[in-house]
Write a structure and sequence with these properties.
Blueprint: H1 9-29, H2 35-70, H3 81-101, H4 107-143, H5 146-159, H6 162-175, H7 178-191, H8 194-207, H9 210-220
Helix pairs in contact: 1-2, 1-4, 1-6, 2-3, 2-5, 3-4, 6-8, 7-9
Length: about 220
Amino acid sequence: MTQQRFEIYRPIHKAVRHILFSTASDLGSFDLGDDDSTTQALEGLAKTIALLQEHATHENTFVHPALEDKAPGVVAPFAGNHDDDEKVYTELGRLAGEIRSAVGDQRVPLRNELYARYNRFLAEYLAHLDREEQVLEKALWDHFTDEELAGIDAAIEHSISPGAMEGYLNAMCVSFSPDGLAKILGGMKAFAPPEVTEWALGLAKQATPPAVWAKVSAALS
């Protein structure tokens, strides 16, 4: 049996995928005739973009430099991906602004364009996540011990803003298995300050279905 290595990419990517798919669903179903529904969907898109930008910053700050130092050149094929993403975020933001300003039937083609552009981006981003898991995760395993990888992951966790942490945790609580969620929260208990751990556990308890939380709580005790 192959020993399970410490994973930096897969757990957070699982949460990111959930957020991406949820945003796609929201952008396809909001009511253009209801200002509250429209505002909620467009604000959700803005939050998703902000979270993805912070995720890119974490990789560029903590993961890629460390990996490039041990395996020069391995990160190079990924270097421009997040720059390309920024161009898409600008385009999505422009379309969202035009929808807010439009009235009546003017909103329909704009919503259709926004939905189509987001889903093209979604397809490209999913492929990017898979390449990172297939190529960069293996490179990390080849050049770092699990203890070193856990240290990098802890540094990332300490840098995550409260807003992004809330977004990640909410996604994890509805998309992770009980053992997977317990592993993430257990890591927080081991490395995070007590006040951060208490906040994260309280948020997770609220966001997790009761039957699942009972299993998570038992595993953490």
